[in-house]
Design goal:
This is Ger(X)C family spore germination protein. Keywords: Germination, Lipoprotein, Membrane, Palmitate, Signal. One of its GO terms (biological process) is spore germination. The chain is an alpha/beta fold. It folds into two domains: 29-59 and 70-225; 227-394, 2-Layer Sandwich (GMP Synthetase, Chain A, domain 3). It contains 13 helices and 13 strands. It has helices at residues 4-17, 84-93, 111-116, 119-126, 145-149, 159-168, 177-184, 227-236, 304-333, 340-347, 349-355, 359-362, 386-392; strands spanning 32-42, 48-55, 74-81, 98-100, 106-109, 136-140, 192-200, 206-217, 220-225, 244-248, 259-276, 279-296, 368-378. The strands form two sheets. Strands 1, 2, 3, 4, 5, 6, 7, 8 and 9 form a nine-stranded mixed beta sheet that branches. Helix 8 crosses helix 9 and helix 10 packs across helix 11 (349-355). The radius of gyration is 27 Å and the shape is globular.
Length: 394
């Protein structure tokens, strides 16, 4: 006869096995529309327009696909409405598969909508459980999110993957959705994103690039940083490595442009804040070790006086660029994209408590001193210009 204790344990195990019979609410991938990117625009009639870039079943790249005719790998759908969830419902009516945001890697905000203010829809679109907060957010420059998502990208079968890879690279400013939302809600810093614009390739086909930055004040776009100004922000953001700097060291003549180009091998930023008459002042020091890439001058970089002159000129040019960029964020954009408020908060918490609510109004008048120190540590395989080498062997 089976002991009662063993009988009870056996019955309990049998009951537990019933709980593992399958996923009652599972969804097959064949039933899902995989959204790779989404876009937000303000339409001409003032409505919100949402655009989705969806991977086609045969458009998902695989190792088995090669050669042959280039086929469509994505479909793009759009719909208008008053608010996000209503629009998602309209989009779903266009699709035979259920919209799934778990693969979305990019959120594109149209320029017109960004200038209007983005609070209306962020909560609706990002509250969905499958939304990824580590997706990148970019702002369209001079165009709409819809146009960006309808633009092909020859290097990738799915254009959204192209945007993702550019954002992962070293030459583009990148911010993810969670970082962007934190900045929108912060008193200490202003939001910023990469700016994507449509260009034409050498073959005349449209493509896109991310070579600018979009600056926000709170929830509204106030302007863009240029390609040169973006260097200052990238340096501050710890992304100076690999940056190219070209300086006009000598006047241009018929034989030489008079320029020196260097590449940043390592860059650092140090910031110090102080309080004077109850208001903050900021001092920032930028240092970089660089290597020479191109010498389009008559100068021999092997000579110490020439080296010092080149270092001084590059430091002077970068000082002007960084100081002018900071000044523009203060006077024109009125947005603390360099997070000076955060440094004041860290170093002077008592003062910060009294000024944090007015920080965005105080920031435009904060004195900022900039110091730049650039040293050339490598000069390539040759120090003298090529023309001097040629003359030597004549």
């Amino acid at each position: 006869m089976i002991p009662s204790r063993i009988l009870y344990v056996s019955l309990a195990l049998i009951l537990c096995l019933g709980l593992f019979t399958g996923c009652w609410d599972r969804e097959e991938i064949d039933d899902l529309a995989l959204v790779m990117a989404s876009g937000l625009d303000l339409s001409e009639d003032g409505q919100l327009e949402v655009t989705l870039q969806i991977a086609l079943p045969l458009g998902i790249p695989s190792a088995l696909q090669s050669g042959g005719k280039r086929e469509e790998h994505v479909m793009v759908v759009s719909a208008k409405g008053k608010e996000g969830l209503d629009i998602l419902g309209k989009l779903q009516q266009q699709l035979s598969r259920k919209i799934f945001l778990g693969h979305r890697g990019v959120l594109v905000i149209g320029e017109k909508y960004a200038r209007h203010g983005i609070d209306q829809v962020l909560d609706d679109l990002l509250r969905a459980p499958e939304s990824r907060y580590n997706s990148f957010v970019v702002t369209a420059f001079g165009t709409t999110a819809k146009e960006v998502l309808n633009t092909t990208y020859l290097l990738e079968e799915i254009p959204a993957i192209g945007i993702n890879k550019i954002q992962f690279g070293e030459f583009s400013l990148s911010f993810k959705i969670d970082e962007f939302l934190n900045a929108v809600a912060s008193f200490e810093a202003s939001p910023i994103t990469g700016a994507v614009r449509i260009i034409k390739t050498g073959t005349g086909q449209p493509s896109f690039t991310i070579d600018r930055a979009a600056v926000y004040r709170g929830n509204k776009l106030t302007g863009f940083l240029s390609q040169e100004e973006l260097k200052a922000k990238r340096w501050w953001h710890g992304e100076a490595k690999g940056m190219f700097i070209t300086s006009q060291v000598e006047p241009k003549d018929k034989d030489f442009n008079g320029t020196i180009t260097v590449e940043v091998m390592q860059g650092t930023t140090k910031i110090h804040t102080s309080i004077k008459d109850g208001l903050p002042e900021v001092s920032v020091t930028f240092k970089a070790a660089v290597r020479g890439l191109a010498n389009n001058t008559k100068l021999d970089m092997n000579k110490a006086p020439n080296m010092k002159r080149i270092e001084a000129k590059i430091s002077e040019d970068m000082h002007k660029l960084i100081a002018d960029t900071i000044s523009r964020t203060q006077k024109e954009l009125k947005a603390d994209i360099f997070s000076f408020g955060r440094e004041v908060h860290i170093e002077h918490p008592d003062v910060w408590k009294t000024i944090k609510d007015q920080w965005m109004d105080i920031y435009p008048n904060v004195p900022v001193k900039v110091k730049v120190d650039i040293q050339i540590e490598r000069m390539g395989r040759t120090q003298a210009p090529a023309h001097q080498k040629i003359q030597k062997y004549k």
